[in-house]
User: What shape does this take?
Amino acid sequence: MTEVFDTYTKRTKAYYIALLILVVPILLLALTNIFSGLQLSHEHTRYLGGSCAFGLAVYLFLNNCFIKMYIVDGKISFLNNVITTNSLTIPLQEIKKIVIVANDYEGKRKGTSNGSGNRIEIHDQYNAVHVYRFVVKSYIESYNLKKILNHYTESGLIVTSNGF
Assistant: This one.
């Protein structure tokens, strides 16, 4: 069984702009409630609340639509006896342990996820740690990753995961 995932190291500017659009109105609303001595009218409070809702809508739209929130910079392949990245091939015999946090796939949580919340650390016998963030594009890929990691565990490899 083989499964290939996109890897990334940084997020796009659109991600940070969308996050800024979301966070600034929320901070302003929180500050006006904390410093109620500013004596803002209900109209101003409604305006800030509407800005928060608008910021959340823009963030969700950008995060889930045609704008990528990360920049793909490679691939990671899980095969039966090796793990391969763009520049590195690690046989299972040279791996001490795998630590994986993979609980996100594209479309999870009713469409509010882009599948980029996954990370893997590969500890090899030379005491090097290889860390990759990767994207799971469907539930089927997530399920296949579980099967591959179960195969690695049955082969005697130490696999630590978040319970997925």
Summary: The two ends are 19 Å apart (CA to CA). The first strand starts at residue 3 and ends at 11. The chain has four helices and eight strands.
